[in-house]
Amino acid sequence: MLKSRLALIAMVSQIVFTSMLSAQDDSQWLIPRAMVASTELKIVWQYNLPMAKGESLNDMLLYGNRLCTLSSGNYLSCINKADGNVMFASLIAPAGLPVVDLESYKGELLAMVGNKLVEINADFGTEKTKTQIDTGVVCPVVRNDSFFYIAGADRRIRALRADDKVKVFEVAAENASRITSVLAENDFVVFATEAGNVIRIAADKAAKIWQFDANSAVVGPIVHDATSLYFACRDTWVYRIELSSGKLLWKCQMQGILDTAPQLGGKLVYQCVPGMGLAAIDKQTGKPVWPVPVKDGAGMLSESGDKTFVITKGGVLVAMDNTKAKQLYTVNIALPIKYATNTADSRIYIADAQGRIACLEPAK
User: Fold this and answer.
1) What is the per-residue pLDDT for 25?
2) Distance from the CA of 135 to the CA of which of 22, 100, 161, 209 falls in 20 to 30 A?
3) Are the CB atoms for 173 and 208 separated by under 8 Å?
4) What are 164's strand-pairing partners?
């Protein structure tokens, strides 16, 4: 099965770009050319992942020069972002075994496969290491150069040495609250809890540096830039705090109970608000930028200058002018869309459950 899939992928990969340019009928693609003809967007490439009957696309991850996809059949495919050619395809677990929390780190992909933490070589799709985690995992495993940090169901974080997976230390919130996310860099680790605590610790030992207390549970991952942390809470507020001290810089209230993390752009912070859509907040001031959220907005796709590209839950691509706070145009794909938020450039990467993938970009 794997060999036949790889052969099919290799054959399709050779013809995908030529077919896109020459086909008179491009209805098999996710984005027919006519759909974007009246906009500034152009199709860079499209690719249709080979899928077995009943198989669907579950996850997409941008990493370095590639777009990684994971199917419900546990096939991991990595596609070159520049041209849409397949770099590898690999079965990383038997069908039916849960594979969750696909992450990346310096040439490796990380995932929980059942109750095992698996490291996968991001160049070839081969398994490097597999480590059993007996405590359960309540949020994505993260790592830096020295340690893996695993938040367990027992409300403790364990730091495993990266080289040999030996536990070096463990830490928990003083109130023993359930951990909702962990952020790790070489010089610091920050974790959040269901009680609203955001706690910075040393990267190499169980030593608390500071603690910030919000009013309610922190939801989803904390995101950061060079000086600040940004996160959402179920108390309806989005927060920005100082990385070095934990000092509150601003908080912005949304019109709903939040259940996902914010997305960080160049000048704006984007927050999905249940029942409303996607809101945009000025990163410096903490003030809303769009008077009304993009209706049913699911997330930010990319930014181009003062424009933001948004995807809605129903599959409408929306171009927003941030300077004028108004909608420029829409592209109605009319399908639920998988997407990967791109902060490296203005390219847009979207797909549907059938595995049809499109890369678009605005005219320069």
Assistant:
1) 62
2) 209
3) no
4) none
